[in-house]
Predict the structure.
Amino acid sequence: MRDELARTMDQLHLDTLPKPYFVAYRVDDIDAATVAGSLGSLLYDEDERRRLLVVELRVGDYQFDNTNFFGMPTGFAGMARGGRAIGLLPLDDDYRELRRQLWLATDAAYKQAIEAVSQKRAALQNQIRSDSLPDFSHEPVVAIADTELASASRPDLRATEALVRSLSAEFRGMSDIFTSRVQWTAGMVRTRYVNSEGTSFVRSSPWTSVRAEAATQAVDGMALSDVVAAYGATVADLPSREALRLNVQELGTRLTRLRQAAPADAYNGPVLFEGQAAAELFNQVFAPNLVASRRPVSGNPLLERLMARSGNRFQDELGARVLPRSFSAVDNPTVTTFEGQFVGGYRVDDDGVLARETRVVDHGILKTLLTTRVPVRGMPRSTGNRWGFGAVVSNLFVSVDSGLTAEQLKDRLLRLATERGLAYGVIVRRIANPAMRSSADPMALLSSMGGSSSEGTPTLVAALAVKVYADGHEESIRNADISGISTATFKEIVAASQSRTVYTTPFRARFGLGFGGAGLGYAATYIVPSVLFDDVSLSRPSAGTPALPALRPPQ
Amino acid sequence: MLDLRMQSVRFLQVLLPMRVRTVALGALLAATRVPAMAQEPTSSPVLQAMRDELARSMQALKALPTPPYFLSYDITELQSVQVGGAFGAITESQESRRRHLDLDLRVGDYRFDNTHAVRGGFPGMGRFFGFGDRFVQIPIDDDPRPIRAALWYQTDRHYRQAIEQLMWVKTNAQVNVLPEDTSSDFSAEAPARYVEPVVRPAVDRRVWEAKIRRYTAPFARYGDIYEGSASLSVEVETRWYVNSEGAEIQTSQPIYRLYVSAYAKAADGMELPRYESFFAFTPQELPSDQSVLRAVERMITDLHALQRAPAIDPYTGPAILSGRASAVFFHEVFGHRVEGHRQKSEDEGQTFKNKVNEPILPDGFSVYFDPTLRRLGSSDLAGYYRYDDEGVNARRVVAVDHGVLKSFLMSRSPIAGFPRSNGHGRRQVGFAPVARQSNLIVEVARPHTRTELKFTITGRGIPNAFNVLPVMVYRVFPDGREELVRGVDFIGTPLVTFSRITAADDSVEVFNGLCGAESGLVPVSAVSPGVLLAQVEVQKKEKSDERPPILPPPLGPVTGAARRRP
């Protein structure tokens, strides 16, 4: 990589056209395995090795280069990705062949880049622009050699198969669960990075996860499903086998019980989001706005407006209040455990920028977003949050100055309900995560899909919710769509708990152009309190309900 | 559309290296160690589970107002091993083993059922259960319980979908005029019973990784060859099929394919591809290392010759298609047009619908399809199978007898005059079967020699002619001299071209490949002598405008000097 990089910087140019001013090579060695099972049998058991190359090549200078431009696509992959070429490298450490592939990928990236930079110049010649953000930020040079063992021991597949078989067999006795599956994945991404500024790093990112999903229909036919998952870097980070078994079993019994529960009535009033539900609120509604994404310029002002509209609202709200004054939020990729529980993390990001703590919200006020080396207005430098295509949340710690105990929080909920003249308040304990929903069973898809989402307020689906009455007794509710919570309503949180939940889940950014995915195995961790909102709407889904199966399942 | 068919002369080839992006570890490794030697083939517990659940479903659904009249379960296990490499290095090496379910549930009766063609409108509209049906996974363990649970759930979904469809197609049939072809929706067939032993792939991946490195290393000698890759793909397809008519079939068939592909660029940016493919049912039948390496050297020589070759000028005139090119030509232009369901669908051209018993080729030409042929000469035939994907016995079908059209390829979807299947209902896992080709064989009563053919054309005083292979095309001059040209693209109507077939030579060649159509990819083969076309039309193909790389290759060509190490 170094050799070809040196040659590129030294020699690569076309006739009178400029040389690249920045080139980075990133090679991800991916080694992943998946074992899936259902009702005690294996569905498949597979592993995969790939070596992925990403070339990032910039022509021009830090102030103005070929990127952040949305032009007419020229050639393949010319669009918006701006001078980046992606390819598969051989798995063998064959020096000659690796260099050959780097050479071809660099050549392709260079040709795209020079074309893009001239298109961009031409397009901007006819425009008067108010902002003149640089295209790329200067960052300190770092050199990090991996501290983790290169050949981290591969997981024992026999033991994993046995685990998947036995966990999935938990559903065998549950005839009211129509489909179920347990899936275990583990792997390691070993990243090697060099750039022309002298930065280089080697980084190992291992991950392991187990998830169980189950779907059924309630007695009235409405679709019900839920997914439970556990994440860790290695098997050692996961809950014990017995704890996993109990989780899976509980998932089955919970769904079985919910089949009989009453469907949600229309409800407008206070709702307490506990544990996983609070974490999912942050994950699905709040956190996607914490990552910055540069809005590319374009030759077409109309198109640019359209792109700005789909963008992130927090980007123009630095200094605004986005949470209650007692709340602060910190992103910190360098933490690896919290109160003994696994938390993800990394030391250096995909731009080769050192990971660090970033205070995103300070006493309710938005201080910065999480950024990459691509500057956005008000945020000229990287916060070290580049992963894959853009910025990501790593470990988001949300803290409150004066948290309540669980009892106090419940009392508060009941008081608010009474003030409204309501007979009960609602506690939501689990929210379905659309990123985790199964594609294998349409019933699971149906049950986790919220209704239409009006602008900025996605409809969330409660996977587990209860009515709580003044005397403290609870009644389960199923099939409740939650609406009325948007990024803007987070500042109206009424109260929060002292204790915090640690919750890890795949992170999906809301990028301006809809490119998502922070890469294989990437998950964000949320460390958040339970939160009470004053004004939330619950309703049952309005879509029709499929009939129940004509036959009982085979015994 | 017509032009595309012609383009797919190459499409068919390009599809050869199908990649499965997945790998099985332990399961498959363990499986290969199990000796597959059952003397008396026994039916698998999978078949038993399918039979039991099918009986239970049919029995219970009988009580409902609209009971199914037909139900079939088809579980396909695909075990695959893929080893790929380029320029002497391995790029992928993986294994996988998965099982998928295909299910056919029909309500109504053989004459008119839920699959009846909808006229005007979008089939599948408004159906909730219409998505997610493909690729239903079935456990790879033989435990009947989870298999039956999956069958139960899918049967229910298909049942609901079928009754919804039936109501819709009934209404649709009432509001539209009668179709031209009023034949039944489904043919009744005698139930087949057949069990053969389950085969496991016999491949040592490390051995093959070494071979692939060796096969692709020669390409690395040249800086102007931009792709030089090879892949071995082994696929064992084991199928269990049961239906409510009483059919029970267990088959297991391995396929070994080796595919070598390379491309270079001409100075004007035109990409110049070159492929070689080898096909066999056993690893022993694959070519030796020596003959693969010879083929690689030939490819390199050809690529360099193509770089120097002049680009084609637009041309209209006679051409000789070599055996393989003719085989592909017959497959594309003729084979697809005798697939039975195309004569019924009102969206199709129905080219040959009213041509039965009429001459469509010179009277020396016969064309038949024979899925029961496993091998011809020294080649295994990819279109070989014993039972089709609707559980119907494979059999030989004479399509053209001495120039006269006799029959179509039939699945269980009848057409006017052809009420029964002839064992050609085929599909890829996850697709509904339709009539597809098997082994297409062109036979000629009075072949000429190659030289005779050459002078047949040039003798007419036409300045030049073409001998067309997908990528290697030669201009033939009146004195018999040949010149390689590049960038050839067929244009014009293939059927017109088909009608210009005038003679054939005596060198029969086999083409094995995967054919893609509405029921997915199926392995096929086509066998033909070289044929003379009185007239073809060709033009220069579109080329990429991208310049060759700016910098020279990093280490320059290898000239025997010591390699640099990092």
